[in-house]
Amino acid sequence: MTRATEAYTFAAIAIASYIVLFLGLVPLPETVQDKIIPVLPWWALITFGCYCLGNIGNAMYTFRDCPEAYHELMGEISQAKSDLRSKGLQLN
To answer: What Pfam families does the database record attribute to this sequence (predicted)?
Structure first.
């Protein structure tokens, strides 16, 4: 199974489960049926958003700097500038 197929399968199972719970086909206490089940999609959306923000924040925090690549790039820039100056181009 591909990742997309797994994701679609999980989504279909989750949606089917929610519909069964929302329509009351499974006997649940009245408090759960009236107060918790209707807000489950919002809870899932907020939880997913928090996960995404945390994942992005963690990726930014653990992003590795590459000082050798920086120095290599700066060397190439200075080499390009000197080459352009030798051809008569005015640079700032």
So the answer is: DPM3 (PF08285)
Amino acid (1-letter code) at residue 4: A
What does the alpha-carbon distance between residue 37 and residue 28 come to, in Å, rounded to a whole number? 10
Q: Are 20 and 26 in contact (CB under 8 A)?
A: yes
Q: What does pTM read for this prediction?
A: 0.59
- CB of 21 closer than 8 Å to CB of 28: yes
Q: What is the largest CA-CA distance in the chain?
A: 83
Residue identified by tokens 């279909």 is 12
pLDDT in tens, 11-28: 999 999 999 999 999 999
pLDDT tens readout for residues 59-91 = 888 887 788 888 999 999 999 999 999 998 887
Which residue has 């050798």 as its token pair? 68
